[in-house]
Amino acid sequence: MSLEEIKSRITKAEAAAGRRPGEVQLIAVSKVQPIDRVTGVLEQGHRLFGENRVQEAAGKWPDLRQDFPDTKVHLIGPLQTNKTRQAFGLFDAIHSVDRPKLAKTIARIAQEEGHCPPLFIQVNTGEEPQKAGILPAEADTFVADCQSMGLPVRGLMCIPPVEEEPSLHFALLAKLAARNGLTGLSMGMSSDFERAIALGATHVRVGSAIFGERVKPG
């Protein structure tokens, strides 16, 4: 698979769903990828990337952005409260607001810094005990709480359980977002992004299908 093939499949999925061309943003998930692979995708003109960890992004993107200054990087993995201020300086959006303590920390730092990146609230649609995210039954209240703190909530994010049909989870996330007047839906990965687009995804997160299998640190 290549970047161009993925973009072509996204365009076809948009058309099949009756959506405007370019409505879906492709986040190239560059976590645990060698720099030469990331640079190769940048050199093809792609400019939106996703990272899972603040520390890894801090060691990678400041240098890359010197050569590719128009690049946007989104945090799609968990955010520790003690890394929040650092995340503000690294990321153009945060997709993993998953608990009240983090929301309060973001609100405090946003007030101190005078700005806040766009936020997505992570919903644990499968109600999996080992997975981060707000439970679906608590999503409405959490969205309202975040908005009352002045946080720029743009949408919702989910990672469906691996053994379940993802479309059920995408449909649930879309319903929750619509009910709360949110337009952003960060959902869909390499194996299921077309189904996510059919159900309203605005951001799809694709890694291995673009870069190849991740390289684990030695």
What can you tell me about this protein's structure?
The chain is an alpha/beta fold. The protein has one domain (about 5-210): Alpha-Beta Barrel (TIM Barrel). The chain is about 40% helix and about 15% strand. It has 9 helices and 8 strands. It has helices at about 5-15, 35-45, 55-65, 85-90, 100-115, 140-150, 165-180, 195-200, 210, and strands spanning about 25-30, 50, 70-75, 95, 120, 155, 185, 205. It has an 8-stranded parallel beta sheet with strand order 7-6-5-4-3-2-1-8. α7 (about 165-180) links the parallel β6 and β7 (about 185). The model has no long low-confidence stretch (mean pLDDT about 95).
CATH topology: TIM Barrel
Tell how many strands the DSSP assignment holds. 8
Give the CA-CA distance, first to last residue: 26 Å
| Tally of domains | 1
Strand residue content = 15-25%
Described by the principal axes of the CA atoms, the overall outline is globular
> How helical, in percent, are the residues?
40-55%
The CATH architecture designation is Alpha-Beta Barrel
Structure annotation, total helices: 9
For the report, how would you describe the main beta sheet? 8 strands, parallel
Trace the largest sheet across and list its strands: 7-6-5-4-3-2-1-8
* Assigned CATH superfamily: Alanine racemase
